[in-house]
Each structure stands twice: as structure tokens, then as C-alpha cells.
């Protein structure tokens, strides 16, 4: 057993790519693809956006129950249990869709699966952090990120495309229809995801290491409660914490309003102000071109921050995230039929979203997280981001139905204003302190150098 664990630890390529792909696949099916499915099945925009956004809650509050995962058994045990339950749960979703009043079963089942998925995330991250040393963590960070991003390609791209192909090419329904005739296609999709997730559980049972317990792991519920309470109190003791909270919550506000409604706008017919695309075209544009643009933008945004520093670039990164949202306003006004123009609009928005979002994550790492509970406070920051997505997603569909697409996309542009304000007033205490220390060290070095030069001159 020891030799096997050592082998697995030395070979993270056996389990890091598949582990993070499986995490992303479950998350995307629950919080993103489910919205498209609800829309296909005839649910109105308000309800489809609301229900799919509610499933983000578990991922938002996972820092509150993460310590309990540390207390019992191994991290691998929780990964395997979660993946088995997710696989069986998605199979249950497919079976439930053949029942009358299936939505009464689907919504609670998705809700339960979201908490199981959040537990999988906690445990898989724990295996990664505790099984690899710091050098290996850095070495495989790119593999980890790339593997996670393959999940959206498969889910929002490949599976959405496949649902449309099954609907029209296999079950011979009209691509522009919405209603229960979509159940056949989506049942196949969820059976496929269930089988793939269970296959990943079998694979990880063979190759994934157990993961070590951290030295400060609590041993009782009471101790866990004290740690959670202390991390919460210390978070609010940070200097200018409310300005940092405002930044974490508001930076992606306009994106939150756009995230669910953008795909709905793509598939709604022209009679409702949409572009009338099929699921196949939606999968290609969003899941392939759009995601490729996000990845490229993220790489270039990271390069810019590394070259110029976060403080000098953050406001421009905020501009990059928010201003290109105007592409959806323009498309809602002109309703282009040319797929090149539609694809270009999505690519522009997604590229600059990826470019600017780098600043958000780096700010959380460098300014919000540092302190006694760095990992937990970073999770609080990402939790605030998730809370923003939950709140905006729940109301976005209802607002769009009231306003129509053109007025709603105007609202999206207005929602960029709080993002700019939160970014402009975001504090930089840690960066300023580090800069002051670097400047002090530079002056001290110059002083020492001048003293040595003077001594040499005097000797001569």
C-alpha cells in the first residue's frame, strides 16, 4: 500500500487531469448546462436562470463545511464517495425525466448533488495539496487548470452540441421547439455523464493517493467550530475589509447578469428578440470558440500582471472585463444572422473576460487572503464571487422577461459602474507594504554600496 501511494504521488499525471476534469464536469452540468436543459424543456427564462443559479450555493458556502471533510477517513475516500453518488445521481436524473411531474424530483435532486459536488471539490483539492510537495504543486498547476477547463469544453460545448444533434438528427424533432420532446435527448446526455463519472471513480480508486491529514486538522466537531469562528472573526479584523468585500462581490457583477442570459439570448427565436441558434451552434460558439478565447485572454492577462504589477493594471483589467459586454447590446439591437458576426461578438466578450478576470483572482491571493488563515480567507473571497453569481443569476431571468433583451443588456452595462467603483477604491495594503520594504532594502543597499565606495576611495 505504501509503495502504491508513493508511486501514485510520483505520477500525478495519472490522477490530476482526470480528477479536475471530473470536478469541472459535475459543476458545469449542475450550474450551467442545467439552465440550457431547463430552457429546452420549456421553462421560462426567469425560472431557468433562478433554479440553475441556486445550485451555486453549495459551492459558495463550502468553506463552512470543508473542515469536517478533514476529520474523517481519507480525502480519497470522500472523492470516491462523491463521484459514485454524483454518477448515480445523474442516472437518477435521467430516470426521473420519464416520470410525471419530473421537475418536482429534478430540482431537489440537483440541489443535493450540488452539495456532493462541492464535497468532491474540497476532497480533490485536499488530495492535490497534501500529496504533492510545493515544487510539484507548482509544476502541475498548469495541468490542473487546463484539465478543469476541459470540463466546460465537454459540458457546455460537446454535450450541449450532442443534445441538439440527438434532438434533430436521432429523435427527429424541430430544432426551434421547446418542450417535453427534449427529454429523450437530455436523458441520453445525463446517462452519458453518469457513466463517465462512475468510470472516473473506478479509475481514481486505482491511481489516486489517499492524501495526508494536515498537522492542524481538528479532531472534534467543537474544535472545528472554534477554527471556523476564529477564521471568520479574523477575516473581519483585516484593515479596510469592507472595501475588499465590495471588490470581491462587485468585480464580476455585470458578468453575473450576463452569464445565464447570454446563452438564452442565443437560442431564443427572433420573435422573442433572440438570435434563434440551435443547441449545436450554441455548443460550438460557447463551448469551443468562447472557451478558447477565455483561455487565451487569461494567459495574456497573467502576462500583463506579471510584467506591470497588479496595482498599476487592476483598473484596466476591470475595463477589460466590463466594457466588451456591449457586444451583446449591439447584437440584441441588430440581430445579426451571420454566424461569423455572432461568433466574433462572443469571442470578444469572452477574451476580455478572461483577460480581466486574472486581476480578480490575483487580488484575492495577494491582498484579501494573506494572514493566519490564508486558504480559508481566499475561499471566502471566491465564495463572495459565487454569491454574486447566485444573486444575479436568480434575478437575471426575471428582469430580462420584464425588460426585453435590449433594455436588459443596457442594464448589464449600467451594472458595470459598481464594478469600476469597487475596483478604483480597492485597497493595496499588502502590496504597498512589500513595495515599501523593497524600497527600504534598495536604499539600504545603496547606502552600503556608497559606504564601501567611500572607504575604497579613502584607502586609495
TrEMBL record:
Compartments where located: Membrane
Sequence ranges assigned to domain Major facilitator superfamily (MFS) profile in this UniProt record: 12-431
Signal peptide boundaries: none
Transmembrane annotation, as ranges: 12-36, 48-65, 77-96, 102-124, 145-166, 186-205, 241-261, 281-306, 313-334, 340-365, 377-399, 405-426
Cross-referenced SUPFAM superfamilies: MFS general substrate transporter (SSF103473)
Keywords assigned by UniProt, alphabetized: Membrane, Transmembrane, Transmembrane helix, Transport
Membrane topology: Multi-pass membrane protein
Chief localization: membrane
Alphabetized InterPro entries for the sequence: AmpG_permease/AT-1, MFS, MFS_dom, MFS_trans_sf
PROSITE patterns: MFS
Name of the molecule in the record: MFS transporter
Amino acid at each position: 500500500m505504501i509503495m502504491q501511494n508513493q508511486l501514485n504521488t510520483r505520477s500525478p499525471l495519472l490522477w490530476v487531469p482526470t480528477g479536475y476534469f471530473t470536478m469541472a464536469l459535475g459543476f458545469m452540468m449542475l450550474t450551467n448546462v442545467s439552465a440550457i436543459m431547463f430552457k429546452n424543456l420549456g421553462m421560462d427564462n426567469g425560472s431557468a436562470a433562478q433554479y440553475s443559479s441556486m445550485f451555486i450555493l453549495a459551492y459558495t458556502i463550502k468553506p463552512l463545511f470543508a473542515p469536517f471533510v478533514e476529520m474523517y477517513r481519507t480525502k480519497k475516500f470522500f472523492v470516491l464517495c462523491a463521484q459514485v453518488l454524483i454518477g448515480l445521481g445523474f442516472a437518477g436524473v435521467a430516470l426521473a425525466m420519464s416520470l410525471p411531474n419530473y421537475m418536482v424530483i429534478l430540482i431537489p435532486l440537483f440541489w443535493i448533488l450540488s452539495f456532493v459536488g462541492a464535497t468532491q471539490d474540497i476532497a480533490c483539492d485536499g488530495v492535490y495539496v497534501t500529496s504533492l510537495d510545493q515544487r510539484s504543486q507548482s509544476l502541475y498547476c498548469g495541468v490542473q487548470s487546463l484539465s478543469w477547463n476541459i470540463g466546460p469544453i465537454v459540458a457546455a460545448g460537446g454535450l450541449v452540441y450532442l443534445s441538439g444533434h440527438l434532438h434533430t438528427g436521432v429523435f427527429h424533432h424541430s430544432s426551434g421547439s421547446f418542450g417535453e420532446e427534449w427529454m429523450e435527448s437530455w436523458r441520453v446526455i445525463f446517462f452519458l455523464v453518469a457513466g463517465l463519472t462512475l468510470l472516473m471513480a473506478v479509475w481514481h480508486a486505482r491511481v489516486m493517493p489517499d492524501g495526508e491529514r494536515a498537522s492542524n486538522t481538528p479532531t472534534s466537531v467543537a474544535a472545528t467550530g472554534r477554527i471556523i469562528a476564529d477564521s471568520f472573526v479574523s477575516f473581519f479584523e483585516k484593515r479596510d475589509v469592507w472595501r475588499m468585500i465590495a471588490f470581491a462581490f462587485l468585480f464580476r457583477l455585470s458578468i453575473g447578469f450576463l452569464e445565464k442570459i447570454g446563452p438564452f439570448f442565443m437560442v431564443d427565436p427572433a420573435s422573442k428578440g433572440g438570435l434563434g441558434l440551435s443547441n449545436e451552434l450554441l455548443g460550438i460558439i460557447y463551448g469551443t470558440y468562447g472557451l478558447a478565447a477565455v483561455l487565451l485572454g487569461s494567459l495574456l492577462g497573467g502576462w500583463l500582471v506579471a510584467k506591470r504589477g497588479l496595482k498599476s493594471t487592476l483598473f484596466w483589467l476591470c475595463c477589460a472585463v466590463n466594457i466588451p459586454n456591449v457586444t451583446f447590446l449591439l447584437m440584441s439591437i441588430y440581430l445579426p444572422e451571420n454566424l461569423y458576426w455572432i461568433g466574433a461578438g462572443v469571442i470578444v466578450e469572452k477574451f476580455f473576460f478572461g483577460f480581466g478576470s486574472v486581476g480578480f483572482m490575483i487580488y484575492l491571493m495577494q491582498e484579501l487572503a494573506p494572514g493566519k488563515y490564508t486558504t480559508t480567507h481566499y475561499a471566502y473571497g471566491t465564495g463572495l464571487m459565487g454569491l454574486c453569481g447566485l444573486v444575479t443569476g436568480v434575478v437575471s431571468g426575471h428582469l430580462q422577461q420584464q425588460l426585453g433583451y435590449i433594455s436588459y443588456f443596457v442594464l448589464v452595462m449600467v451594472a458595470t459602474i459598481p464594478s469600476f467603483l469597487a475596483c478604483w477604491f480597492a485597497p493595496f495594503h499588502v502590496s504597498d507594504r512589500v513595495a515599501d520594504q523593497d524600497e527600504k532594502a534598495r536604499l539600504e543597499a545603496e547606502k552600503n554600496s556608497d559606504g564601501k565606495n567611500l572607504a575604497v576611495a579613502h584607502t586609495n
